[in-house]
Amino acid sequence: MNGPGRSKAADGWLLSAPALLLLLIAASGPLLIVAVYSFLEKGDYSGVRWILSGEAWFRVLFEKDIFDGKVSLADANLSIFWRSVKLSLATTLITFALGLPTAWFIATRPPKARAVWLFLITIPFWTNLLIRTFAIMEVIRNQGLLNTLLINMGVISEPIQILYTDTAVLIGMAYVYLPLMVLPLFAAIDRFDFKLIEAGYDLYATRWRILRSVVLPIIKPGIVAGSILVFVPSLGAYVTPRVLGGGKNMMIGNFIELQFGQGQNWPLGAALSMVLLIIVMGALLVYTRVSDRDDPHA
Question: Which residues lie closer than 8 Å to 147 by C-beta, 6 or more apart?
Answer without folding.
Answer: 140, 141, 156, 159, 160, 162
